[in-house]
Design a protein that fits this description.
alpha/beta; globular
Amino acid sequence: MKTRNYLLYDVFTTERLAGNPLAVVLDSKGLDTAAMQAIAREFNLSESVFVLPPDNPKHKNRIRIFTPDYEMPFAGHPTVGAAIALAELAQEGGAGIFVLEENIGPVRCAVS
């Protein structure tokens, strides 16, 4: 299996090991649904996010959200955590307004 970079976040807190835990798997291109589900099961967090290239080039990324047992079309803390992670990794200094594509459709995110 290809090595993948990932981040672990504690969402909705400024303290480590508090808040809602989240795994953000970067560069998930090439992973199928079964592989994403297996990785989410291995992390065993409430949710794991997989970052993919967007379908629409005007959008930031496509994300897929998994619990250890199933895929979710949308969830708040994974969307917030993924938006923060992507903003922090961007060259623009960690702030901005962009769209993430999720299974429910486009979600507008603002990070400051």
